[in-house]
Amino acid sequence: MTSAEKPGWRNRIVGHGEENPEQLLANPLNWRIQPQNQQDALGAVLDDVGWVHTVIVNQRTGFVVDGHLRVAMAISHGDEAIPVTYVDLSEEEEALVLVSLDPLGALATADSESLSEKSSCQLPDSSHWSTLASWLKKSRRVVSPGCS
């Protein structure tokens, strides 16, 4: 098979919408625990910027596949609707996606020089942003001379 004949990856996204976060079902296979510092950092981003990433829900099972913390925080915040992307996955595919999304993202490394050039590390002045910047530096995800 030539590259011109090679089929593309299947698009499993079947829709977008908004849902009341209280109606979304936490996935019983979710293996992630979000510590307070992650909650604080996400809260700071949501407060300063708002929603820029949807929660992923499997239309077949009704379970959240990605975004458990965002759902919990939206409930605590009193949000009546949050952005959702619906996917169509078998239970086996759902389990694979659930265990792979965060670890795959964690494999990425930071180009600290590029980050420094592009952002000049200008984070808003708040304790939550400081906590996030410190964690990034300590975890070596971002090590930039311009960041504290």
Defining traits:
148 residues; Conserved hypothetical protein from pyrococcus furiosus pfu- 392566-001, ParB domain; 2 domains; four-stranded mixed β-sheet; 5 helices; globular; disordered C terminus
Concise account of the structure shown:
The chain is α+β, with helices and mostly antiparallel strands and 148 residues long. It has helices at residues 36-48, 68-77, 91-106, 112-119, 127-138; strands spanning 13-19, 55-58, 64-66, 82-87.
Question: Assembly state here?
Answer: single chain
Helix and strand run: EHEEHEHHH
Distance between the termini: 52 Å
The count of domains is 2
The name of the CATH architecture of the largest domain is Alpha-Beta Complex
* Global Rg: 18 Å
* CATH structural fold name of the largest domain: Conserved hypothetical protein from pyrococcus furiosus pfu- 392566-001, ParB domain
Main sheet?
Answer: 4 strands, mixed
Q: Mean pLDDT, nearest integer?
A: 81
Q: Give me the count of strands.
A: 4
Can you lay out the helices and strands and say which pair or pack?
Elements: E1 13-19, H1 36-48, E2 55-58, E3 64-66, H2 68-77, E4 82-87, H3 91-106, H4 112-119, H5 127-138
Parallel strand pairs: 2-4
Antiparallel strand pairs: 1-4, 2-3
Helix pairs in contact: 1-5
What do you see in this structure?
Helices cover 40% and strands 14% of the residues. It has 148 residues and is of the alpha+beta class. It has two domains: 13-107, Conserved hypothetical protein from pyrococcus furiosus pfu- 392566-001, ParB domain; 109-142, no CATH class. The chain has a four-stranded mixed sheet, sandwiched between helices. The radius of gyration is 18 Å and the shape is globular. The termini are far apart. Residues 143-148 have low confidence and may be disordered.
